Amino acid sequence: MFEQQLINALSLGSVYALFALGFTLVFGVLGVINLAHGAIFMLGSYVALLLVNQFQMSLWLAMLIAMLTCGVIGVIVDFLVLRPLRKRNAPHLAPMIATIGVAIMITNVAQGFFGAENKRFPFGTIPEESFTVGNLHLTAVQLAIVLISFALMVVLLIIMRRTQLGRALRAIAESPKAAYLLGINVEGLFLFTSFAAAALGGAAGVLVGLSFNAISPFMGQPMLHKGIAVIILGGMGDIRGALIGGLFLGFAEVMSVAYLSSDFRDAVAFGLLFVILLVRPSGMFGKILERKA
Amino acid sequence: ADIKVGVAEALTGPAAKYGVAIKNGFTLAADGINAKGGVNGNKIALVVEDEQGKKEEAINVFKKLIFQEKVLLVFGPTLSNSAFAADPIANATKTVVFGTSNTADGITNMGPFTFRNSVMEADVLPVTTRAAVKKFNIKKVAVLYGNDDAFTKSGYDVFKSALADQKISVTDTETYAKGDVDFKAQLTKIKASNPDAIVCSCLAEEAANIILQTRSLGMKQPFIGGNGFNSPKLFEIAKDAADDTLMGSPWSIENTSATNKKFIADYKAKFGNEPDQFAAQAFDALNIVAEALKTVKLTGSIDKDRVALRNALPAIKFEGATGKFAFRRAAAKDGKEAGYDAQQEAIVNIAKGGKFILLK
Amino acid sequence: MSTILSIQNLSVSYGHIRAVKNIQLELNAGEITALVGANGAGKSTSLLAVSGLIKTNAGKILFEGEDLTTLSPHQIVQKGVVQVAEGRAILTTLTVQENLDLGAYTRKDKAQINKDLDYVFHLFPVLKNRASGLAGNLSGGEQQMLAIGRALMAKPKVLLLDEPSMGLAPLMVQEIFRVLKEINQTGLTILLVEQNVRQALKIAQRGYVLENGEIVLQDSGQNLLNNPRVIEAYLGA
Amino acid sequence: MLEWWDGFWAIYSTVIFGIGINAMLALSIYLTLSCGLLSLANAAFMGIGAYAASMISMQTELAFPVALLAAGVAPALVALAVGIPTLRLSGVYLAMATLGFGEVVRVIVLNMEITGGPMGLNGIPLKTEWWHIVVILGITLFVLARLRRSKTGRAFEAIKEDEIAARLMGVNVAGYKLLAFVLGAVIAGVAGGLNAHYTFTIGPGNYAFENAVEILTMAVFGGTSNLIGPVLGSTILTLLPEVMRSLKDYRLAANGLILIIVILYLPKGIWDPAKIRALRRKFTSSKSEEVA
Amino acid sequence: MLQLQAISKNFGGLQVLQDVSFTMPEGSIFGLIGPNGAGKTTIVNLITGLLRPSSGEIRFNNQDLSVVEPHKITQLGIARTFQNIRIFKEMSLLENVVVGMHEHLNYSVGSMLFNLASFKNAEAKARERAHELLTWVRLDHKAHMLADNLSYGEQRKLEFARALATQPKLLLLDEPVAGMNPAEKTELMAEIKNIRQRGFSIFMIEHDMRFVMELCDRVAVLNFGKIIAEGTPDEVRANPDVIEAYLGKEDAA
Ligand SMILES: Nc1ncnc2c1ncn2[C@@H]1O[C@H](COP(=O)(O)OP(=O)(O)OP(=O)(O)O)[C@@H](O)[C@H]1O
Ligand SMILES: Nc1ncnc2c1ncn2[C@@H]1O[C@H](COP(=O)(O)OP(=O)(O)OP(=O)(O)O)[C@@H](O)[C@H]1O
Ligand SMILES: [Mg+2]
Ligand SMILES: [Mg+2]
């Protein structure tokens, strides 16, 4: 049983990590807790579902288009909502509250369009059977999610750490003014980040929709809670943190079910989070950097 | 004159998947009644409001319907938790409140104006369990339920005592929370406890996922479920992975009575999808009220008419989409007068080839 | 001498506070021009306006004949007008090396960039020692060096400096002024805002005096040093 | 007229009660925000207050004021215990820790017998009357207004601006933060107690993440630079769904849109004193130009 | 009055201060100079309790400061200004200064709630005193503006006024004249002399030699975390090590 639970934890953790990657990217660069990320995630799976259902599109193409669509929506949200707020020098909570508004809108409109019930991808979109090794089971999508989230993290890390683009993004994250003085196209990169993060969110939506067969207008909300926990646990805006934080949360949840009681799954997970923050006030990878004077 | 009937259901938010089906059931019933000329010549006019599945909203909507719209009675709200907030308003104003989806214990204890035709799990689950035990020769089961939802939790309570009564041992009890989509950790634990069947107090969508994930873990056990399973959603999501699932309910899509067949056909024609139990119960509820109204002479004084309806309802015997129906007075508690629960027969179904068929 | 940057009738306000009022200022190519004035006179505001970081109310800023007020800040840097801002604008969460790399953000010529990096390390050896450390952990003076070094990495045509000697030890101040002179001799045009008025005017070919948002004096650096009004107000006893 | 009022009151009294309660909640989070703390524990504190008061009302013969007192004291004690270790966290990390705390409270309540588990407590007696809310909201506003003008209020503001500088001005930063946190808990708890006694039922789901965020939204929407903002914000956001009812299925989308638009044009909230001053200046100056 | 005994401080592996000891007599102006990154600001952070020494002891009027919390240290009578200005930007100048008087506003919760005389008097007095301090630094005409609207130099002056508001016995100034022009420096110099006259002791970090030489009674020179010289300004100025490490030839001349 333990081995199976390890696999369960790994796959659940990867789901969280996958969701958190885009989420943490927005925070890391724009400094905004984008509470619409859950809604965009949801939209991603609906777009792909629609394409697969209505146009008999292949899954991979549908996923690509879903990512693009979400990316464009991310750009629109940035352009219409976040950018004006940046221009007006809004206090730091304002963008977050505005994204709540965005989330409410997208969710409500999605419900109007697609209905409130859960949907799933048609049977046979992906191989249903699971890989079985001895007594251990893992489905193809689960495996895909694990691999993709690790791969994405590595790619993002390389971009952030090793490329001029990454340095520029980190510069913007710290001080847009300083970035401007360096000749960085700050607004352009904000838009780019919003696009990338939303596209990542969309991809996560498609994969999660495939793996759990529970596509609904509200699927983003619980994921958002977990996502917030994950990026804080990992350290806000830290790419490694999103993955490690996701895995940590996945393990905490699965192991608390396995060895304590499923009644307290969330309490254990969030309680642990609480404790970790007390020990490491900026998350696992958060930088504790404060020049005192 | 039109008879104004209030409908307060969750039409947005996560509970909307039930609320919308319920609203459809009412609409279909009202159309049917009005097409036949209404009740004693009066058309039924539905006044529909969204209560979002929130308690404050439910109270607000009830007040609006009762005081402003001056409806004769209120159907709803969707969730039991909202009912606990809103039903006292109806009782205080001597207005019938008729729940079609409230299954929690104690709903009808809120006052004599509280009615419901939603079958209580206590009436169904023991029958289902017994049938399952016989069919699959079950000795020990594992239990899985949602522990943060009034419906699934009270279902669990009933299962628990039914299992104890029938001396079935429980190998493991696991819970999940609303919005969870990954149940593998619990299922892996259940697998290790090696039960003969899995008892599941869940709603259809979750149940379907649970079943799929159970199968992907290489488990073949049959499932035993309650009312929550009674939805086409189960098969839309799980297809024949759900085979060998037992479910008991007064309403079955397979029930071939004329009323039910017509209900299902009309529903499909009007809304383009298959009805579920929520729609069926709502459909019946309005027809039950219509029956009662036939025996009432409306005076035009809303207060008097409301009480007259209340007095006429308990005597109604009715056969609708959900089969034979009668009211049963709830046991009074704390010396407070109680309302009326549903008295219905459960039909036990088994899933075969992607649909429920009657268990013979 | 050709004018490389000219500020014409520039006005800037913060809300209803008018910080810069209709000023005229010209930079000759290859010269150091000093801009001096009391606290709050509007010096930093003028520089921010040139870099496009603050909206102007009126006026033009012509660089090689092109009006900068219509460009966004990063385009202005790409044109070659680079600023070392007040408060240094160091990226504290990045390493010293990364700060310098970003200085060359608008450039592509790898080989030349590396040469310039060596030059900066030659000017400020501390930076080399601390290259892999976080810039936020540098002392105040070290950060000032980083800011100047970083600006040089952009290979600017015009360098705007807002109080570069602030917070530096005397040895370092001499060093900075020496460096400024040195880079000026390589042909770089510099607009220097300084409180260290004496030193600034010493190395500047020309100077402007700003008071309450208005230019009140302009002359050669040497003449200003001897101007009684300047002596009284800015050079102290 | 009187009749109209009776009808209106019968329909909308709960909405109006809701405004009062939400105003208190928004003020409770305003208080912590004014001290630079982004705490999202207020929904949990509201829940603790609601459960404490309801259990007293349902299981004892004690008077309503006692229940309300408990609704204030119980969360205060919890806040004290939780605040001491947590308040050194800053920004979103504090927000998360307090959310985590809220989640733990919710799960505990969910799994306890005496709190009724997921069913919550039902049949809570109707005891809250309109004047209870008016008086308590009034007291809250009065105390907070006085606080603002005192050294305590200034200390809060200084801490919000720059903790280190505040500390070196002799301000006991940890102490004042704890004070803001505990006072906020008291206000939220009493609001919870009042709320429970007119909605007949409470459940663990009423005090979860969404509610915490909703409270924050009301405060930020209204503006957190003074007391008027949170009250205004909660009033508008409580009324909005009521006003939008006619939009049916898309009313939430309209709510969301309005939220966005207001934040876009008034990023500091509806009540932004600086903006109002500027408007007034514009108004008077254009007037004086007319004169001239 | 202030005594540092064998203070050392490391950040991780970096040894920033090594065995720093000096004594500052009451009523004096004590200067600390040294190259950038020598550890001067770190010393001020240690004295004010924002950092704790890795080893060694700091005594103020014979009390060990190493276990006292920062706000208590302020209450003991030590105030400071910051090298990287830390004013309360969203507060008015007046409020900035009144915050400095936090500890000296004594009124009960009751009198605060009900606006009693003791509250009103204390607040009025504080405001009056704040105006006085602002007048001193020539910012009184901006008393009701937000501090954020000040220019850099003005912000320094505000910080100065705010530090004085805490009624310190010892004032720690971290580069008080950075960003001011010579004329303004002269002005501030007069003010600092004025303050000393009233019995304050002043500990000052400054790179402006004219300023240091004219004001300080004693000067210590820090280089790479070690004191390399201490004495009267003239002694220090003549010290070849100091010239080599810090002053350079020009200023010494
Ligand atoms: N963000 C701002 N908002 C409002 N007013 C401002 C702002 N920044 C500066 N000011 C005002 O504009 C005027 C000019 O400021 P500026 O910073 O340009 O002065 P400066 O000459 O650079 O002074 P210093 O030598 O002190 O740096 C000052 O009166 C200042 O109060
Ligand atoms: N929190 C910290 N972590 C790591 N290193 C630090 C930290 N604070 C200071 N330092 C280092 O300690 C040394 C001394 O710093 P400090 O700020 O005390 O210098 P300073 O003498 O005040 O210099 P300046 O005159 O430039 O202000 C510097 O090299 C600095 O980089
Ligand atoms: Mg300036
Ligand atoms: Mg320093």
Topology:
The complex is a heteropentamer of chains A (293), B (360), C (237), D (292) and E (253).
Chain A: H1 2-30, H2 37-55, H3 59-87, H4 93-114, E1 130-133, E2 136-139, H5 140-162, H6 164-174, H7 176-181, H8 186-212, H9 220-234, H10 239-259, H11 265-279
Antiparallel strand pairs in A: 1-2
Helix pairs in contact in A: 1-5, 1-6, 1-8, 1-9, 1-10, 2-3, 2-4, 2-8, 2-9, 3-4, 3-8, 5-6, 5-8, 5-10, 9-10, 10-11
Chain B: E1 3-9, H1 16-35, E2 44-50, H2 55-68, E3 73-75, H3 80-92, E4 96-99, E5 114-116, H4 121-136, E6 140-146, H5 150-165, E7 169-176, H6 184-193, E8 197-201, H7 204-216, E9 223-225, H8 233-238, E10 245-249, H9 258-271, H10 277-294, H11 302-312, E11 317-320, E12 323-329, E13 340-343, E14 347-352, E15 355-358
Parallel strand pairs in B: 1-2, 1-3, 3-4, 4-5, 6-7, 6-8, 8-9, 9-10
Antiparallel strand pairs in B: 10-14, 11-12, 12-13, 14-15
Helix pairs in contact in B: 1-10, 2-3, 4-5
Chain D: H1 2-34, H2 42-59, H3 64-86, H4 91-110, E1 121-122, H5 130-148, H6 151-161, H7 163-167, H8 173-199, E2 201-202, H9 209-222, H10 228-243, H11 251-265, H12 273-291
Antiparallel strand pairs in D: 1-2
Largest interface: A-D, 46 and 41 residues
Determine the strand fraction of chain D and express it as a percent band: under 5%
β-strand amount of chain E: 15-25%
List segments of chain D where confidence is low: pLDDT < 50 over at least 5 consecutive residues. none
Radius of gyration of chain E: 19 Å
Which assembly state applies to the chains in this document? heteropentamer
- Biggest β-sheet of chain D: count, sense, barrel? 2 strands, antiparallel
Number of strands of chain D: 2
Shape, per Cα inertia axes of chain D:
globular
Pfam families (chain E): ABC_tran (PF00005), BCA_ABC_TP_C (PF12399)
Keywords (chain E): ATP-binding, Cell membrane, Membrane, Nucleotide-binding, Transport
Protein name (chain E): ABC transporter ATP-binding protein
GO molecular function (chain E): ATP binding
Task: Give a verbal description of the structure.
Chain C: One of its GO terms (molecular function) is ATP binding. Chain C: This is ABC transporter ATP-binding protein. Chain C: Keywords: Amino-acid transport, ATP-binding, Cell membrane, Membrane, Nucleotide-binding, Transport. Chain C: Residues 5-237 form the ABC transporter domain. The complex is a heteropentamer of chains A (293), B (360), C (237), D (292) and E (253). Chain C has helices spanning 43-50, 73-79, 96-103, 110-123, 125-129, 140-153, 170-185, 197-203, 221-226, 228-234; strands at 3-14, 17-28, 32-37, 58-63, 66-67, 81-84, 158-162, 189-193, 206-211, 214-220. Chain C is α/β, with parallel strands linked by helices. Chain C is globular and about 45 Å long. Chain D is mainly α. In chain D, 75% of the residues lie in helices and 1% in strands. In chain D, helix 2 (42-59) runs parallel beside helix 4 (91-110) and helix 3 (64-86) packs antiparallel against helix 8. Chain E has helices at residues 40-47, 70-76, 93-100, 109-113, 117-136, 152-165, 182-197, 209-215, 233-238, 240-252, and strands spanning 2-11, 14-24, 29-33, 55-60, 63-64, 78-80, 170-174, 201-205, 218-223, 226-231. In chain E, the strands form 2 sheets. A 6-stranded mixed β-sheet of chain E has the order 6-7-8-3-9-10, with helices on both faces. A 4-stranded antiparallel β-sheet of chain E has the order 2-1-4-5, with helices on one face. In chain E, a hairpin with a 2-residue loop joins strand 4 (55-60) and strand 5 (63-64). The longest helix of chain E is centred in the middle third of the chain and has 20 residues, at 117-136. Chain E is globular and about 65 Å long. The two termini of chain E are 34 Å apart. Chains C and E meet through helix 6, helix 7 and helix 10 of C and helix 6, helix 7 and helix 10 of E. Bound molecules: adenosine-5'-triphosphate (2 copies) and magnesium ion (2 copies). One magnesium ion binds at residues 43-44, 86, 162 of chain C. One magnesium ion (MG) is lined by residues 43-44, 86, 162 of chain C.
